[in-house]
Here is the input.
Amino acid sequence: MTTIVTAIENGVATITLNRPEKLNSFGGSMREELMAALQRIAADENVRVAIVTGAGRAFSAGGDVERMRSLQKEGDEAAFGELLAAGRKVVTLIRHMPQFVIASINGVAAGAGCNLALACDYRMAADTAKLGETFVRIGLHPDWGGTFFLPRLVGTSRAMEIMMTGRMVDADEALRIGMVDRVVTAGELSAATTALARSVADGPPLPLSALKRTLYASAENDLASQIDLESDIQLQAFRSRDAAEGMNAFFEKRPPKFGSR
Here is the structure.
């Protein structure tokens, strides 16, 4: 059984972490399979939105502790370093790929699984989900970009408390502090995630893919640089067929049919 299952339908790609018997913990070649799936989606101009979720009752329990314990006993730092490098590649690609990436958190998201969710552009969680930066529980430090993503979402002091205690954060608290963006019942999660993905995927491709880039750039740019970036992209959008379609549809009082780049 492959550990990553990918399905694409009408511009929406769904990536399912598929190791349910191990709570979708990252064992074997799973990191590399996830990276390969993300690379294929990032290169596909017909895909507008990507959803990442887990099979069974967990999103992902994080790293395979049994494997890491074996490497630690053997003193195999090189192999452990390869695990770190693979995680780095995954979260970096998610941040830079043009598609809007939604984490559909169907259950426990712990350790690297938590940080995979945090690396996504939006987090939809079931009310039964729990997230945790559980690294300190096994004597390790957060990886997969956790110390970058979490403080930007919840603030430095709150991130410090969550990471230093290694406690699990339930869905209600995660929503309140900004760790997730929306909470729905477990039964509604798939439909709610699909509805959000569809509402984005039906929009104009050029400004949507650019929006991801400009919004993240705003954290680093000063006002003048940000307006320069906005203006460059706005001119590109202005020249597009989708801009003509959108404005014509506005005056014709009908839904626009976007699709050009």
Observations:
- The radius of gyration is 19 Å.
